[in-house]
């Protein structure tokens, strides 16, 4: 893997990796909870004909580790937004936690997301659809490198109400110029993802089929 492009985002430096060159619009890979960007194009993305980039979320991989935690899915959505501001319009493929972020950014930035593919991976379920019991995180503040233990503790418990997820589907479907802006390839179906699958404008395809759908030139 070549040296990443570092994107300054508020007080965080985000590592954006270029994995492949090619014609057409890029594919942006979003990894699962506790993971980092792959060092080379993974097999499940190898069919993409154009440029491929991969983003390390805040607290992961080569990106900054902030002091004291405070991670939310919306913070990571802002990471993806910063990457899209740099890349321009792109298809987004998210695994696990990255799938949830791909859904959020598809609804928040339908002008920049040329289709989102939601795939299985770590952190897909989150903390369920309702708040759990309050807790205090006690971790070693001297953790030397990513993944930040705060990100593992906090984002494994983030609440994901199905109606909240569906609101982002609605925004994506109604504001995108694509007829089907979201593809679900994940076989694990937590409550939020079941609600997404049942929404109009969402297709159930394999990852390769989803990439093929969005790799086509715009009409």
Structure report:
With 219 residues, this protein is of the alpha/beta class. The chain has a single domain, classed as Alpha/Beta hydrolase fold, catalytic domain (Rossmann fold, 3-Layer(aba) Sandwich), CATH 3.40.50. The chain has six helices and eight strands. The protein has helices at 73-87, 97-108, 149-155, 162-175, 191-197, 207-215; strands at residues 5-9, 12-20, 27-30, 52-55, 90-95, 113-119, 182-184, 202-204. It has an eight-stranded mixed sheet, sandwiched between helices. Helix 5 (191-197) links the parallel strand 7 (182-184) and strand 8 (202-204). Helix 1 (73-87) crosses helix 2 (97-108), helix 2 crosses helix 4 (162-175) and helix 4 runs parallel beside helix 5 (191-197). The longest helix is centred in the middle third of the chain and has 15 residues, at 73-87. The radius of gyration is 16 Å and the shape is globular. The N and C termini lie far apart (34 Å). The model has no long low-confidence stretch (mean pLDDT 91).
